[in-house]
Design brief:
q64v53_bacfr protein fold, three-stranded antiparallel beta sheet
Length: about 200
Amino acid sequence: MANYDLKTFVTNPVKGDVKIKIYDKSSTLKYSVDPRVSVFYKNSNLVIIKSPGIADVVLDFETSAEASSALVRLSGIKQELLDMFSGSITAVNNQITVFSKLNLNMKANVSTFDGALACSTPIREIPAPYSMVKVFINGVEVSVGGKVYPFDCYFSVDGITERILGDERIGDKLYWNKSVSGYKLDETDLIDFVYLVKIIF
């Protein structure tokens, strides 16, 4: 019997929220997930939430279809929270941390095989320390970080050596794993790289 229900496992964010709150079927708060550093992916009827330095969060649903819908819902809530964060800027030691706007709405390349260049545009700014670059395809987050399951794509400076999650650098490009993601990209798809950068003033 599944521990999570599609209708109740997560609540819509409200002003002041900073984390995604995950509830089990008994309405008990089980997890608070930081949307700035978490990635989501699906395996059968499971949704897995991965964050640096902590154990994976595994949410089991009744069916694979429910898990797919839950993944879309999580990605939407995460984007809502990221949009809230982008409206609030914190200044420390003459520095502010904001979301980069230089890698949004980029046209995808036709990517029909593993390791194909997904986007001709590289990371255009230096990601802030202790952050990572998230990837969205047509507004839906995909899993990034390596060449094999569970990663849909990876960043690399040369297309061969993949960057680990959180080690992405300016100039890196995105490469697509069709066999893992289950679909190819084409020129009608739009790609966003979402990441923090520091601005000194």
